[in-house]
Amino acid sequence: MSAPLSAPALTPDAVRGARTRLRVRNARDLAGRFARRRDGMVAAVILLVFAVLALVPALFVGPLETVTTATGTPFEPPSLAHIFGTDQAGRDMLNLTVHGTRISMVIGLLATIMTILLGATIGITSGYIGGRPDQFLMRVTDFFLVLPTFVLAVVLAPIVLDLVGIDAEIFGIKATLMVIVIVIGLTSWAATARIIRSQTLSVKERMYVDRARVIGGGSGHIMRRHILPNVTNLIVANTVLTFAGAVFTETTLSFIGLGDPFAPSWGQLLNSAQTSGAPGLGAWWCIAPPAACVVIVILAFTLVGNALDDVLNPKSGVRR
Amino acid sequence: MTADPRDRNADELIRLEGLEVHFPIRGGLRDLVRRRPSGFVRAVDGIDLTIRRGEVLGLVGESGSGKTTTGRVIVKLTRPTGGRLLLDGEDVTRVWGGDALRAYRRRVQLIFQDPYETLNPKQTLRDFVIEPLEVQRIGNAAEREQRVLDAIDTAGLRPAADFAFRYPHELSGGQRQRVVIAGALVLDPAIVVADEPVSMLDVSIRTEILNLMLDLRRGRDLTYLFITHDLSVAWVIADRIAVMYLGKIMELGTSQEVINDPRHPYTRALVSVMPTPEPPQPGRRARRVILAGETPDAVNIPPGCRFHPRCPLAEQAGIMARCRTEEPPLLDLGGGRSSACWLAESGKPLPAVERRLGVFPATDHAGVVPVAPSP
Amino acid sequence: MTLMPDPGRLSDVTETARLDRAGAAADADDARADEARADVGARPTEAAEEAPLAALSGRAAIRGRRQWPLPKQADPDAPLLVVEGLTTHFTLGDSTVHAVDGVSFTLEDGEALGIAGESGCGKTTTALSLLRLLPANAEVVGGSVKLFGIDLCTKSEKALRRYRWREISIIFQGAMNALNPVKRVGDQVAEPIELRIGLSRAEAARRAGELLELVGIPRSRGRAYPHELSGGMRQRAMIAMALACDPAIVIGDEPTTALDVMVQAQILELLEDLRAKLGLSLILITHDLSVLAETCDRVMVMYAGRVAEEGPVGRIYGTPRHPYTQMLLAAFPDVHSGRRNLGTIPGSPPDLRTPPPGCRFHPRCPAAMEVCRTEVPPEVCLDDRVRVACHLYPPGSDGVPVPLPVTRAAVPDAAVPEEAS
To answer: What is the pTM of this model?
Structure first.
């Protein structure tokens, strides 16, 4: 065949080593580009702070104060002892808000995972296979796209709770919260599926997909090896923005009372504040901290999402 | 899929018999109601072609001729709607899945036109070249890596181990095309269909790639179907040339014969307008036969000989009536030459063209006004 | 590096309408003066005495045939276009790309000049620099472009619009991108006429119809949208647009690249016809040297932003001097001479951010000498009106082409039928 090679043969280990080095180099490239975006970096730091608070809230503010372990008197305005004041049961608002971070973020995370898994799978499969299955799946997607979130939540919550009982726990999460996760997932996946399907349609027409078919690749192989990597960038950017949306939706659902009154997510805190008459009493400190957190977190997610989108999906010809 | 002894001819690698690819035109409520397409794009409209083992067959045609579709049928990216495809005497027309398809793909590979699009930007070169081996489940891990290196090295990218881990955006156009060739070779195919492999490359790089392809043909007993719109490139590299127009083969012969003594008016027109890097000579311009209009839509193929509306000879030779009504088959002129033209039937060279541009076309079909762009 | 100008540049046309109408009145006065001067051409003896080149009498005759008067500042005796030392740089991040570096050439009335070279040699940038239709990160940093003796490089953007499309127009590569998909073709051709020249809409439409017929599109097809036309028709429509304001020079940037060979022949024939009928001057830019041989009077070969060789077409193809020209010609198949051995040029064009010192071709040149590495070869005019920039032809050289000391990589004669059978 050909002349003897001057370089030693590639062993599978050498291949793995080279690939890791490549991946590291790529990752560092991306990180470098991301670091140059100041808005994304600031937002990322903010998210990091919230992530830490979500992981170990007790480290910063001690255990969650309950009605029985309240440290202050009801509706105390902010003071040195209670920086954000207290709520209607005398619980320190800072304590509640920090603990609320975990619940809001965890629900957001789970909902996002569900959304992305469902949306990406259906989007890629539907886009690649095309034809009748695609038409059918798209009609299903349209159905879920127009489903009103709150109506669904209001209908589903009692049904699910009836089925599993109010105190049941799935994966360590209370059933009431799980309902919210499911509702958010069900109403968000359709938009993601549409976006990813449209990207799949364009990737499907590329010459390298044709080439993959010519060498004998089947649908599964092509979807995994060619469609998915070229859609991942879009998925990542989409995920971050979905997370923001999930947090917001959770806040809203909890605020209208579909959450768990014993789990103080930010939305739940707003709900408590409202039902206990805080606005009428002028106790703004019961409303502002959780609301501010929601806004900051969503803004941070959005900024990070946009920065990531720019870094991962560079658009040629855009002059800055 | 049984081998019919009559089909077997040791010299033949691929044979197309009456190949047809008709794409239905769908759209509009009326079609939905009638449940039938309103028309067909007859991209390939009945082709008989043989590709011999070890040869380079040039398939030449302008846009709308059906040459690319023919290539796609041979590599099974497009389904034919009629006719037969035979590989080594075996009828493989209906092979569309499973092991049979995989075995077929191992023997028939494709080099694409655009080296910038054929490589997945997210794959390293090694990934690209090893993919066929993985999909076909050939060899074990170590053997595959070795074959990959061999293929990259054979394609002229040295040192192979260095190139193996680069990404496409780090390479030039010529280097990318070499990678594409390596990827086609790694399965050790019997025939490679090359669809415009050098049109997107700079002229000075083309020679390297053409040389590479010819070296490989000698070293590995490869056969090529070389699809191109550029008659001069086909002349350089091909042993035989088949000229296509509107879905049918107009002429077939050795490249020397087809260029120096074309027996079909379309071929002759193409040859006369072929640009050459020569100093201008008096009289050369007068000998150019520039056809009026463009290749019509494959939806409205003219009746009779499909070239007759643009043919500079039909009226002159007084056989217009026949050309308008009877479609000439690919007539065998002996010695391996064929031409689909009534004027060539006698076996004598074509008469000279008496009139120049501005006086043809003879009928409305060829007008300067095709209603829709050609496919 | 993308050199595609913004096709929306044609909207420049609309912006200058007001200015043009204001200037039209002043122009009209000058027109009468110009006509008087143009009558010089009617006295052949005086014209012949003034200059040995045949171009002069042709020049006066062609300029006398113009539909619209010469620009106010035009010098009727100056050659049509004189480009000297044109230098254009791109800014890419922190680095500068020396895309065009000291390019000079002259274009006479009625002449066709072909600019050839491979991708990245700067030919398109040169053409765009004439009209200053450059992307935002590019700039003409030196040299002069004298149209009728008027230096366009010293003109402001506003003043330059008087010349764009009315004196020099351009046919872009890929007509599909330059045509507005939601406007009828006839309207697009009429637009510059209406706005730049100031004719009424009806007049402009009538003239647009004439132009379409001139390029071989039936008048009725003017009502079609671009997507309803075939590739060749669209390119013809682009040519009609370029001719709308009766320019003196038409630049074709790869006008036939995406087209079938037969359509290519039609378009080239059309350009030839127009040149004869209208006294048009053409600048044809292409990477395909074979295309220029039949259409151009003179050919200029560029490499890496500089001119390698330039001269009458017969000379460039018949006796190429510069090693790059020789190797490039050898890389094209020549059917009529039966040459199947194709040459190749090893290596690749240099990165113009850090071009090699001295002659930019020296890393790939088989005849490279020591001096090529350090000194930029001067442009030398040889006796047969060929200009070449190569140390093999120093000033005072006799111009005999130096054959290259290289064995060309040959495509082995693919004459397998004899072998196999």
So the answer is: 0.80
